[in-house]
Amino acid sequence: xxxCNPVNPTLNGSTTHWPGGASSSATSxxxxxxxxxxxxxxxxxxxxxxxxxxNPNYVPAAPNGDTSMADANIWGVQGYRYTGATxxxxxxSVTLDSQFSPAVSGAGYNHSFFAVSxxxxxxxxxxxxxxxxxxxxxxILRTASGPGCANLPEIFARDQRFLYxxxxxxxxxxxxxxxxQTFYVGAYLDANVCxxxxxxxxxxLTMRFNDAAMLDSFAVAMVPEPGQWALMLTGLALLSGFxxxxxxxxxxxx
Length: 254
Description:
The chain has 254 residues and is an all-beta fold. 2% of the residues lie in helices and 54% in strands.
């Protein structure tokens, strides 16, 4: 089962979900933003894509210093059981490729971000409602409890990376699995832009196991019941205005 939801009812976007993926998009005079996730049967891990474009010709309704901002993010969680007879060090390699527009005024707001996490199945429930107290994106974005993330499962391994210009970035996370152990893999991808720029992360965030031969996938615990699909995906795309400030004002939502 998969899902892609905007969480702000004022957004002018649309969402679609299907057994092997999820998407969300929004378009207005300010620009365009969309996110997409599709299951990768060969690797057991989803492929995540985001795109955000800010209209350089946007004129706010009132001369209050507002400008356009576009943000798109998507995230997913997948469950696994290790079936090997001896301990095994699992490694997940993650690569993000993104393209950015030429430098424009306010380009410091433009970035692409990803996070990846391996965490325990105990004490975790996936919830499509990103505003819910369950905080089901928290194990991907956080390593310690805090506002909106009161209870975290055990985090086995986690990392995150930012891009601020065209290029790619790679990271790996590893954890020693014991026979019969279950775990979740979560990933989050965000593209954020303002001031007439474009952040194109549709060149994908790709993830690969070092060896998936002894991994069986299973349904992620969720609200409501997950049904027959093991892949849980959600995301949002939004367009909004904000006052210019000498700092980055967007952050991954969790």
